[in-house]
Amino acid sequence: MVLPLIGLIVLLASAVVCGLSKRGDVLGPCAATIAGALAVFAGGQSLLTGASPTITLPIPLPFGAPRLEIDPLTAWFVIVIGMIGAMAAVYGHSYLSNQPRRTISLSWCWYNLLLAAMLLVVLARDGFFFLVFWEVMSLSSFFLVVHDHEKCGVVRAGWTYLIATHLGTAFLLVMFMLLGSPDSMDFVHFNPAVVPGGASLIFALALVGFGTKAGLVPLHVWLPEAHPVAPSHVSALMSGVMVKIGIYGLLRVLTFLGPPPSGWGWVMIFIGVVTGLTGVIFALVQHDLKRLLAYSTVENIGIIVLALGLGVLGIAAGNIVVATMGICAALLHTLNHALFKSLLFLGAGAVLHAAGTGRMDRLGGMLRYMPYTGAAFLVGAAAISALPPLNGFVSEFLVYAAAFHVMSVGASAWSGLIAVAAMALIGGLAVACFTKAFGIIFLGSPRSKTASQAREAPAGMRTAMILLALLCLGAGLGGPWLVGLVMPAISQLLPVSMSLNELQGIFHMLPWISYAGLGLLIGTALLLGLRAVLLRGREIRSGETWDCGYAAPSPRMQYSAASFVQPIGSMFAGLMRTRRRLQAPQGLFPTAARLETETPDFFVQSCFAPIVRGLARLAAAFRDLQQGRTHLCILYIVATLLLMLIWHLG
Amino acid sequence: MRWGLLHVLFALVSAPLLAGVINRTKAFFGGRHGPSFFQLYYDIFKLLRKDAVYSRTTSWIFRTAPPIELAAVLLALLFTPLGSTAAWLCFQGDLLLVVYALGLMRFMIISAALDTGSAFEGMGASREAQLSALAEVALLVALLAVAAFTKSFSLSAFAAQAWAAGLVWPANAILPLVSAALLVVLLAENARLPFDDPNTHLELTMIHEAMILDHCGVDLAFIEYGSALKMWILSAILVSMALPLRASSSLLNFATGLGAMVIVALLVGYIESVMARLRLIRTPQLLVTAGVLSFLAVMVAMR
Amino acid sequence: MQALKEILIVLLILLNFRLLGTSRLGACVQTVALQALVIGLLPLLGPNLPTPWIMAMMAAATLVKSVVLPGLVRRALRETGVVRELEPLMGYTLSILTGTGLLVLSHLAGRKLQLPTGGVDQLLVPVTLFTMLCGLFLIIARRKAITQVLGFLVLENGIYLFGIAFAVHEPWLVQTGVLLDVLAAVFVMGITIHQINREFDHIDTDRFSTFKD
Description:
Strand content of chain C: under 5%
Largest sheet of chain B: none
Radius of gyration of chain C: 17 Å
Number of strands of chain B: 1
Oligomer: heterotrimer
Shape of chain C: globular
Structural class of chain C: mainly alpha
Radius of gyration of chain B: 19 Å
Number of helices of chain C: 7
Number of domains of chain C: 1
Strand content of chain B: under 5%
Number of domains of chain B: 1
Largest interface: A-B, 81 and 84 residues
Order of helices and strands of chain C: HHHHHHH
Structural class of chain B: mainly alpha
Largest sheet of chain C: none
Helix content of chain C: over 70%
Distance between the termini of chain B: 34 Å
């Protein structure tokens, strides 16, 4: 327990120093990296030894002293936070370097505060402090989002985020108030049995409250606004880690709600499927790289919740295999998504840094100018498409495995069918989405002048990306080991009757995946060698791309991001309602023509916008009351007083 | 085990023969003599001896993609059974490995196509991404139907346990449904006729051939061979699900499996001879229909 | 026998999907006729055979529905010269997906209405519901009056199947009533189609709305 405390102290102290001075540009990232490393170490230690050290901080506060604990479930998330926090900090040091020192320093202040708050949220064992740290986390991330507040749209996105996150917190507040008692808000004293409405009410509140943070559809609308506008290392941290704190909250609540009914599992499966499909479909049609990545985060959260739903269904049906596999898939995908999504966001940041734009239709051929970034991005893109031998495949494999096993449960068999069909469609569309992201940006030839002047990212940024890419590969090959590591955390969520040793046998197929991944790597190496041998002594020339006889192909003739997804887009036209602005070519010798497509969020358009408009109309009705004259105000006061007097007397 | 290894070796040697059988069938229906059964072998060997020309637009992705594709499809082959002959390697969940290895192959083909910066290849890549996303659903749900029936999710176990569980023609509606869905997937994934025309690549409507327009020499040989193996794998999966015969001797099983492969090739050739290519906007509908067939099969299996 | 019955039931579902997925009206008519034939065959495979008298009734009904009525509709097709439903209110791919949704819905509803026999017959109730829903869907989602007549026939097929499933000894009670209804409907609609076509040169029902005032 000492290590994370030191880490927290380092973070908080450095946050204070960064906030007060201008020297945070080195101190901030250093502190974050050290604290991240400490956190990873502490989490690993807890998972390997199975110990759950706890400590009560000797700080006298009106609601009692905060109690912190690292149990396996917390440890797993501590590792995720520490690892990505450290990588993003290394990257951020170079990323921010061309900005004024004061701005940088302030940014690191919020960054380290965010990191500390996230660690504290997962460590806290007290409802009151949980909420306090939760709020600190939301606020510090808000300030990080509005870092580039002079750019258009950033502040608006920030406000959207702030409002959404507070609405979510309101549900959590109610939840903790129902669970706790005035004497103690400690998690161990929570008893859902005494809550009016029972455990299901608590579950519903948790799903809405934590779901807002995690970005479950339709509460995801803030996510594609806020994540892209933040500086890229912050986007990586928010998309890779902070949304997972919502998942953590859900898991933590499940630990003290007792045995779940199967209805919860169904609800989670349904929400997971809807979230996953919505996320991937909207990711597909985005033309801005960071926005695409943000939507893909929504997709992956959907996969995690779907897996969790299968797990809960397994627990409810008493099927230990399904339960273990589902929860294991959810936890593993949490880590895996953190790795590849932060990698992709860092790659997007490097592109943004080098070319000055994230709009795909202005980019192209970046692989030639940024070989390291491109290679790392390729690894991330393949990992998120769940391709072997990378880590995304391992966790999605487990989701499928849980779904296939559900087929044997009987009444829940339908969920297996739904899960498999949804996962297959999500997987296929994700491949399309990320071949588009990688292909349009890094392959072909540059579509604008700025893109052709891009240079490779500086060493700090490269290091973080390459390390993350290697971790993606490592987690893909080391699946069995990771499952062994996460096992104590899984058993926390299972009913006590299920023993750990029994569970290990379930995953006998995982080593096969590792061997297959290794085989794939070796096979590729051998075939590359064979290719080199076959090409030896042959003449290798270069020429123009063969365009069926056309001799002067130009970059503008390439398929663009919009044209690449047009066939798929037309299949989901009803959901997406893409706006097209077409200026068609006219006459016999047309000069100019343009086509713009834009896909606004369906749920914003058809769900939240009407509500907000209604609220605005309601508020406007009161506008007549407010004339700005003093005597009118006094009249209102007098009238109110009189009314109250009458009410009191009557 | 031994027979599985034999299957792998047999597939490595004779996968290009399937294309020969298909082409001869088409020639027969067209009243022509047609190219030799071994034409694809000749093509591949010719390509292996060629010099190489690379577009100036391309990067290392374009050069490394073909070996990765071939490695992926070889990996899938190791886990593919042939009829009642179990695969050389198998484990619970190998069907996902096969499907996702083919996914890796597709990812690399699409990337390499986009690397050329050609409008044609972009077009092919875009269509491939669309069709294969739908085909994957049909394929996985179809396999789920068999898995639900046999309570196992290894391709090799399907073939073995389906019989024990009573999943035999014509006693059950699952098999016709699954076979029909798998046949559609086979045609779509291998760029066969109602979806794509393998004979030409000079039209705007092509998919697979358009994506590999710019490859040459050794790379093209790798891709052609890889495609032949992919055809073999998907046909073998279809055969494993639909084969109506099972003998007690391994040799006989292996022989019937091979015979069934030839029948699949003849069937594909027949379909190509009697059908016209579907309009591009209609192809997703066929794949969705295949998905519905698989869905129905799962429903019947769950009963 | 059970296996054959299962295959026939699955065939019924597939025929419904064919109706949802095709734009050719000729194919639609053919499918409806085939569907009636399959439904007519089903009771012969059942666990207990109906009496000869009822069997004759059934044969007659099947004959009417698979030969006479489709013939009438075909004649209407010939007279109006319509071949395809070109612009349906809901696209064909989407129709198929909606059909899948309806199938799931009928399956869930069918659980509440289980037959005592068990076995393959468990599929029978969902399929009857699905057939009826498909008929209604055709009436709602297509423009041409002819497709709507076909939807009506499909609906009737579903109801007849329901009768077989639940009262194999007296399905003709359900049957004759419905048959008379349909017969009347087909004549009325045949005449209407003919008249509409002569007056306005097309049979798109949704264009009637321009005459609403």
